[in-house]
Design brief:
- Helices cover 34% and strands 23% of the residues.
- It has 13 helices and 22 strands.
- The strands form five sheets. Strands 5, 6, 14, 15, 16, 17, 18 and 19 form an eight-stranded mixed sheet that branches.
- The protein is globular, with a radius of gyration of 22 Å.
């Protein structure tokens, strides 16, 4: 008897889920309503697609386990992604001061456009598994007796049902899964939204000659200053380009016009982002996105979760993109799905509920990090700091301050933000001691640049005059 799995959504989460299922199902069909590009081009239905995305070490490690016979790290680097060590390859100003650049690299992350990442993952899955991709609009789930049995599709010839032994909803932020579940008798799904009003503004530039090796540069927002947060990033992407993404919470939004965009960068807590791009050649207009709120569906808490259905990726939870963890959480969820399917088989009783609960664990850490900071912005909607938030924030700020001058504290922070370790890493005795000791080196007065990098920056400033 043929066992069929259906995945709704051909984005990153959907393709990775399809790869996870490919070894257990005889047939895996991915459904997407959009006509997907043949190359690394932007697609519809991805509001954040034109803005900066970072693939953290934990997410990359999960990807490495998912596609048979493919090293996703090598695959992405060959496609043009940049390998960035957190310890030495990044210049970052935090609310607690400048991070140092250490001789030890720490975890690595990959930087490229989201268009390249999605295309590279999609081609790897399609080329190395038996997964089939179809363009189709999913109307609802079908099911009976506490089990999802497939999906209902809209076609030119009318609505039709596609039966499946297992369904994954990875249809993204706009998923209608709560409505679909209600039609199957599953009600009471709790949802929460925390919205700082963040606006992203992104423009792509040609990397100036001589600046090809300039490190990824970040000026972080300060959630604790009782004013709108403002941040900026210069991120190397494929094709000899810089992706420059600005972000501002409600009341501090970046503008869409080129002149205002540059003024905004120069007005950040440090002008380094503006200094870098003031003499660079712009290749695109400024692209704006407002789909940046944190939203979560607590599906793991449903009392009568149906067999045969799992929800992953942005359909389960989305985060303020400033924290860069959404893609990695999706990959971790897909890996957990693959592990459980291999362990117990596609038709095992309770499989879907177990996977849904397991996927929630990786969501918990990212959600706590994003919401725990966003609630501090003065015009955030959906939450204000409570006693627990204040306690956690007090500790995390001390940890970040220590990390500006303590390698041990910085290493713990990297591990957690990279999703290579859980939040318990922050309570390890060695980490607690590092926080207690604080920064062992004096604070930096400016960005930690090499002599060569300072020369590049001076040259770019002269070129802009």
């Amino acid at each position: 008897m043929t066992r069929r799995a259906v995945v709704i959504g051909a984005g990153l989460a959907g393709m990775l889920a399809a790869a996870a299922l490919s070894g257990a199902a005889d047939e895996v069909i991915v459904l997407d309503r959009d006509d997907l590009p043949d190359g690394p081009d932007h697609r519809k239905g991805l509001p954040q697609g034109r803005h900066a995305h970072l693939l953290m070490a934990g997410g990359l490690a999960a990807m490495e386990d998912l596609v048979p016979g493919v090293s996703m790290r090598r695959h992405l680097l060959a496609a043009g992604a940049h390998d960035i060590p957190l310890g030495s390859g990044m210049v970052a100003l935090t609310p607690e001061g400048w991070f140092r650049r250490w001789r030890h690299d720490g975890p690595h992350m990959l930087a490229c456009s989201r268009a390249l990442l999605d295309w590279a993952v999609r081609t790897a899955v399609l080329d190395h598994t038996g997964v089939e991709l179809r363009q189709a609009q999913v109307l609802e789930l079908t099911g009976r007796d506490g089990r999802v049995t497939g999906v209902r599709l809209s076609t030119d010839g009318g609505d039709t049902d596609l039966d499946a032994d297992f369904v994954v909803d990875a249809s993204g932020r706009g998923s209608r899964v709560a409505h679909w579940l209600e039609r199957l008798g599953v009600t009471g799904i709790h949802e929460r939204t925390v919205d700082s009003g963040l606006v992203n503004a992104t423009r792509v530039y040609r990397v100036p000659e001589g600046a090809e090796r300039f490190p990824l540069t970040v000026v972080q927002a300060d959630p604790y200053a009782n004013r709108p947060g403002r941040s900026g990033m210069v991120m190397p992407i494929e094709g000899g380009r810089w992706m420059v993404s600005l972000a501002g919470t409600r009341g501090g939004e970046p503008p869409a016009d080129p002149e205002g965009f540059l003024r905004y960068t120069l007005g950040l807590p440090h002008p380094i982002v503006g200094q870098l791009i003031s003499g660079a050649e712009p290749l695109t207009d400024v692209h704006i996105s407002r789909s940046t709120y944190n939203a979560r569906r607590y599906l793991e808490k449903a009392g009568d979760w149906p067999e045969g259905l799992v929800v992953l990726g942005d359909a389960l939870a989305t985060y303020n993109p400033a924290y860069g963890q959404g893609m990695s959480v999706a990959a971790l969820g897909a890996r957990f799905l693959g592990e459980e399917v291999r362990r117990s088989g596609l038709g095992a009783p309770g499989l879907a509920r177990g996977v849904q609960r397991g996927a929630a664990r990786s969501v918990d850490a990212a959600w706590a990090m994003a919401v725990g900071q966003d609630v501090w912005y003065p015009q955030t909607r959906g939450g204000r700091p409570n006693a627990a938030d204040r306690l956690v924030t007090r500790y995390s700020r001390r940890l970040t301050k220590a990390a500006t001058g303590s390698y041990r504290a910085a290493s713990a922070l990297w591990d957690v933000t990279s999703l290579t370790a859980g939040p318990e890493r922050l309570l390890h005795p060695a980490t607690l001691l590092a926080v207690l000791n604080g920064a062992l080196l004096p604070p930096l007065e400016g960005p930690p640049l090499t002599a060569e990098e300072r020369g590049v920056l001076r040259g770019l400033e002269r070129a802009s005059v």
